[in-house]
Automatic annotation (TrEMBL):
Keywords for the protein's UniProt record, in alphabetical order: Membrane, Transmembrane, Transmembrane helix
Domain NADP-dependent oxidoreductase: start-end pairs: 96-371
Cited Gene3D superfamilies: NADP-dependent oxidoreductase domain
Source species of the chain: Discostella pseudostelligera
PANTHER family tied to this protein: 2,5-DIKETO-D-GLUCONIC ACID REDUCTASE, ALDO_KETO REDUCTASE FAMILY PROTEIN
Protein name in the entry: NADP-dependent oxidoreductase domain-containing protein
Length: 495
């Protein structure tokens, strides 16, 4: 028997109507189990289950249904999804284009190609998809503000967030970096710009920056004033740094920190949640998590396999729902008000990450994952990667009654550079008073110099040139894999 398309439509409508009636009757019998009916691509999806709104979710996060992720409204009235595509780790043009096609509307990139980012590829993909902010705004009706998103047309563009490399900190350097991102992303307005790291340290900068994050922030504030940038923020922020940022004329709208089930950044997140609860919507700050699926442990913390993806606890929860571990982690994180940015070059992984709400974690399961914080097990079938034979864990202790700035001295190159070439020194940290400790990972033969940082704790360090050298130290692996060096004033000696 051949059934016409019209007949099939009538049959489908009868089935859906009957299902709705049954479930509404069910909800009367079981009032504690709400019924959610969500239309996606003109198809009604009906779910019965526990409420998905977590009591710990901060006010800025919207209520989440069983099938759709929550959204976040930034302090300037811009609404963004809580799941974005991270684009480090080799994510390139075709991967970005596929992500856009399957529904991603937030892409996190950066200027640093050394860290696996391809900012130009992001710009090309979004431009060719005709889904830049300016593509949308041209065809949209009037906006409620220069930066916000009023008007009647439904938002449909890809929000792109980029980051300034710490070696480009400084007023003029940051201005040039912004211009570079505008060109690479093929835009006249940058959706969001973060400072990638608040300062340089050994190994991440090819040269000492012109200035500090304070100088870079001044540029970002001016760019906000001029409408060149719509949102600003920083990565790797602690409570002290947050306090300094909040004292600026324009405070941060986005903070991006390392966050995963074993590293939940609870103290800082509590500080941020308290701030958000005490302030109006136009002062809210979004918390983004990077490496939420555990890549930090594998790539940077010495584990031979990813402990998040291989966690028996998370695997058991995932199997209960026919889900994958990343989907469990993504739902757990976003329900707590954390935006996630999983990177993937795999099309099916991109799609499944976006589809993390076809099930609902119970409050008990949410708490089980919360309790994983700091309880990182060593996998039975894996051990930590062997350290580099020249690696040394250094601890510098300030014995000077004042501020000490610490500089790494890059290796000499054909007689150039070295201790005497102050312009090559890379600022790696500051000790603000006697007894302060600076810890870092170094290697055999690395040289450091310690200079008078002045009397002001928050004094901006523009250059090591002309500063009094107090001390120096060359790392020697023969003294052990963990070493301590005390910094005292030896400026009257020949160093």
């Amino acid at each position: 028997m051949v059934v016409s398309a019209q007949s099939r439509g009538v049959i489908a409508l009868i089935i859906v109507s009957f299902s709705v009636a049954v479930l509404l009757l069910y909800s009367k019998v079981h009032p504690s189990s709400p019924v959610t009916i969500v239309t996606i691509n003109s198809v009604n999806h009906i779910f019965v289950g526990a409420s998905t709104t977590s009591s710990s979710t901060p006010p800025p996060i919207s209520t989440m249904t069983s099938t759709t992720p929550p959204t976040f409204t930034l302090s300037n009235n811009i609404t963004i999804p809580s799941i974005g595509l991270g684009s480090a780790s080799g994510v390139a043009y075709p991967h970005i284009l596929h992500a856009i096609e399957v529904g991603y509307r937030f892409i996190d990139t950066a200027q640093s190609s050394r860290w696996g980012y391809r900012e130009s590829d992001v710009g090309l993909a979004v431009h060719e998809a005709k889904l830049r902010y300016e593509d949308w705004i041209v065809t949209s009706s009037s906006s409620s503000s220069s930066n916000g998103e009023g008007g009647s047309k439904e938002r449909d563009y890809v929000f792109v967030q980029t980051k300034i490399h710490p070696e480009d900190l400084g007023y003029h350097s940051t201005k040039q970096a912004l211009q570079l991102s505008l060109e690479r992303l093929h835009v006249t307005t940058l959706d969001s710009v973060l400072i990638h790291k608040p300062h340089c340290w050994e190994g991440i900068c090819a040269h000492e920056p012109e200035g500090t994050w304070h100088d870079a922030w001044e540029v970002l504030q001016e760019a906000m004033d001029d409408g060149i940038v719509r949102a600003i923020g920083m990565c790797d922020v602690d409570e002290r740094l947050l306090g300094q940022m909040l004292s600026k004329r324009i405070g941060p709208m986005v903070i991006q920190n390392w966050f995963d089930p074993f590293h939940q950044d609870k103290a800082f997140r509590q500080t941020l949640d308290d701030y958000n609860r005490q302030n109006p919507p136009n002062k809210q700050i979004l918390y983004q998590g990077y490496s939420t699926l555990g890549s930090q442990w594998f790539h940077h913390k010495g584990y031979t396999q990813n402990p998040v993806l291989h966690s028996p606890i998370l695997q058991n929860i995932a199997s209960k729902y026919g889900a994958m571990v990343p989907q469990v982690v993504i739902q757990w994180a976003t329900r707590q008000g954390v935006m996630v940015l999983p990177a993937s070059t795999n099309p099916s992984h991109q799609e499944s990450n976006l589809d993390s709400y076809f099930f609902t974690l119970s409050e008990e399961e949410m708490q089980i994952i919360n309790d994983m914080d700091g309880n990182l097990p060593q996998p039975e079938n894996a051990s930590q990667k062997d350290k580099h034979p020249d690696e040394v864990a250094m601890e510098f202790v300030n014995h000077v009654d004042g501020v000490v700035d610490v500089y790494w001295v890059p290796p000499t190159n054909e007689g150039d550079g070295g201790i005497d070439d102050e312009t090559s020194h890379v600022h790696v940290g500051k000790m603000n008073g006697m007894g302060d400790v600076l810890r870092l990972t170094s290697y055999h033969g690395h040289a450091f110099v310690f200079k008078d940082g002045g009397s002001a704790v928050n004094e901006i360090v523009e250059s090591s040139t002309g500063r009094k050298m107090l001390n120096m130290h060359v790392v020697d692996k023969l003294l052990g894999s963990e070493q301590q060096h005390e910094i005292d004033d030896r400026s009257d000696e020949e160093l």
